[in-house]
Specification:
The chain has one domain: Beta-galactosidase, Chain A, domain 5, CATH 2.70.98. Helix content is 6%, strand content 38%. The protein starts with a strand and ends with a helix. The structure holds 6-O-phosphono-beta-D-glucopyranose. The site of 6-O-phosphono-beta-D-glucopyranose (BG6) has 11 residues, from β20 and β21. This is glucose-6-phosphate 1-epimerase. InterPro entries: Aldose_1/G6P_1-epimerase, G6P_1-epimerase, Gal_mutarotase_sf_dom, GH-type_carb-bd. It catalyses: alpha-D-glucose 6-phosphate = beta-D-glucose 6-phosphate.
Length: 337
């Protein structure tokens, strides 16, 4: 059974709408609840309430832009392999919690009441989710929080995620966290793509005990396993896929770091929920806040924004001079609020 949802979570009681509904709630794999967003020009996205996890983002021609493994396990407590897992309150094992935190394997709720911030003006294809800790969560991370996640499709098919995390501790205690939008992009061939916008920056190499290095190449290319946390990155990063004649542009706000990851063949084989050759068709570029933890006092709120677009090939190639883009403002407020 499926139902249309008007705006941020209101059930539509009207007769069948003309054309597909901008927001539809239905069942996904293994009966897990999901939300389908559809923009009038044809782009779409799918979000599982399990994990608050985007599992699909298609352009107006119906082409899938995110990678999800054919072996992904859509069954709690395993996080879905691919799409956009939310890493909170911890990225990787920077801390004592399970790697990448618990938000990616909790079931989120569609906000019943309009959230305390404006609705998007340019699109009806959005959904507001909320995550609050359970008693079980409090045992492993003793804090009270409200995490509001808005997922929206823009009129041009851009995918926008806004995280608002508020400290609701009643005991006067601050809390700190690290965070990432662990985005898996679908690409033609890992050996053929380049990631631009991170050149000359320092990074921590996860494959060398997080030793610090400075990027020397004029772009990141892939010849073997790569797992790095780039620090103090500009607000725009490009993934250039010549074969697909497509460039992904990652724009971010409130998220200074960027993780770049490809497991390559050996690690691919070691992952039960990932096909042996699938590493060739994916790359993770993850907007993140890792090196400096985010700290919130009670009543304080943090916002982290991600905006993804897919543009025709070479559009950004050679234009991502870090000195130039570093001065760029972060993702504009009105584009995704
Ligand atoms: C990346 C990390 O973000 O996620 C890698 O940098 C990690 O070190 C990868 O292997 C996948 O993590 P997981 O927990 O989803 O298997």
């Amino acid at each position: 059974m499926s139902s249309s949802v008007a705006g941020a979570g209101e059930e539509s009681g009207a007769a069948a709408p003309q054309g597909p509904a901008p927001v539809e709630r239905c069942k996904g794999v293994n009966g897990l609840e999901k939300v389908v967003l559809r923009e009038v020009r044809g782009s779409s996205a799918e979000v599982y309430l399990y994990g608050g996890h985007v599992t699909s983002w298609k352009d107006e021609h119906g082409e899938e832009l995110l990678f999800v493994s054919n072996k992904a396990i859509f069954k709690p407590p395993k996080a879905i392999r691919g799409g956009i897992p939310i890493c909170f309150p911890q990225f990787s094992n920077f801390g004592h919690l399970e790697p990448h935190g618990f938000a990616r394997n909790k079931t989120w709720t569609v906000e019943a009441d309009p959230p305390p911030f404006p609705v998007p003006i340019s699109s009806k294809a959005y959904i507001d989710l909320i995550l609050k800790p359970t008693e079980e969560d409090v045992k492993i991370w003793p804090h009270s929080f409200e995490y509001r996640l808005r997922i929206a499709l823009g009129p041009g098919g851009d995918l926008m995620l806004t995280s608002r995390i508020r400290n609701t501790n009643a005991d006067g205690k601050s809390f700190s966290f690290t965070f990432a939008y662990h985005t898996y992009f679908s690409i033609s061939d890992i050996s053929e793509i380049r990631v631009e916008g991170l050149e000359t920056l320092d990074y921590l190499d996860n494959l060398q005990d997080r030793a610090r290095f400075t990027e020397q190449g004029d772009a990141i290319v892939f010849e073997s396993e790569l797992d790095r946390i780039y620090l103090g990155t500009p607000s725009k990063i490009a993934i250039i896929d010549h074969e697909k004649k497509r460039t992904f542009v990652v724009r971010k706000g409130g998220l200074p770091d960027a993780v770049v990851w490809n497991p390559w063949d050996k690690k691919a084989k070691a992952m039960a929920d990932f096909g042996d050759d699938e590493y060739k068709r994916m790359v993770c570029v993850e907007a993140a806040a890792i090196e400096k933890q985010v700290t919130l006092k009670p009543g304080e709120e943090w916002t982290g924004k991600l905006e993804l677009s897919a543009v025709p090939s070479s559009y950004y190639s050679g234009q991502l001079d870090p000195d130039r883009v570093i001065q760029d403002s972060t993702v504009p407020e009105d584009s995704i609020s």
